[in-house]
Amino acid sequence: MSPTTPSSRRQESLALPEASPADAALIAAYLERAWAEQGLARQTLDSYRRDLDGLARWLRGQGRPLLAVQREHLFAYLSERSRRQYATRSNARLLSSLRGFYAQQLRLGAISEDPTALLEAPKLGRSLPKALSESEVEALMNAPDVTTPAGLRDRAMVEVMYAAGLRVSELVNLPAVAVNLRQGVLRVMGKGSKERLVPMGEEAQHWLEKYLAEARPALAGKRNAVPLFLDRNGEALSRQQFWNTVKKLAVHAGIESKRVSPHGLRHSFATHLLNHGADLRALQMLLGHASLSTTQIYTLVAREGLKRLHQQHHPRG
Predict the structure, then answer these.
(1) Residues with a known catalytic role
(2) Which of 3.90.180.10, 3.30.70.100, 3.40.50.970, 1.10.150.130 is the CATH number of 6-108?
(3) What's the pLDDT score for residue 313?
(4) Where does the pLDDT of residue 189 fall: very low under 50, low under 70, confident under 90, or very high at 90 and above?
(5) How is the chain split into domains, by residue range?
(6) Is the pLDDT at 311 greater than 50, yes or no?
(7) Alpha helices, DSSP H only, in 165-261?
(8) DSSP string of 23-65?
């Protein structure tokens, strides 16, 4: 079987019929209740929407609505996704979406049996976050052309993201009022609408002040813009726009690595702090992790780094 790509899978999905109006309404109602009851983040809700819409489209091609699904239909759908080489993590998230949806339908009395009851989630390997070296981060910071408003904005964004360890969604969604330059902190809205204060550090604060004084007024024009970081139209940058920006800066900096991404800067922030002796509990608070176990994976990253140093420099390594 020839390998598939995200683009080819997307094309196959678009070739399927659209979800029926009844199924689309069911999905919308589920997401509205999930948001009200659990306070899920917009990105999580968008992922659930895509997962449920994908199943609904596939089922409609077989003449079956969402509420008429039985376990064997879900097995068949998961087998189809396996044939199309979807990632294990993507299938695990899909199953989480389906379980939430059908559990709600069972509570509402729309179905009498949960079709996801005996479905097992795929086993996920514990992958280590990929971090840049400190010299690579420095090269990335120096890549933007800070003589232009867009370049000054890019420098401020990568400085702030690395200094504060933000998620990319937190960075692009930051409002201008979230900045407290006097105290050198950001008020960040994280997952589950949980707010936290994050220090920036002197270097990031310097570039942010410079951006606010010199670049943001030029990008905003006469608009009363709310977002902190603006594109050329005075609107908030999207996640994809910033992802593309980081990739271009990496090429300009001569960093030949697939690790370079906005999320890689967050991983680098955490890894470098641990390497310099940061406390794990403090790191958990800075990253906005609900559980310490999520943060503990970075101790594995630091340990791997120490092993590489030992092998490289020890005479018997």
Answers:
(1) 167, 191, 263, 266, 289, 298
(2) 1.10.150.130
(3) 46
(4) confident
(5) 6-108, 134-313
(6) yes
(7) 168-172, 202-210, 216-220, 239-253
(8) HHHHHHHHHHHHHHHH---HHHHHHHHHHHHHHHHHHHTTT--
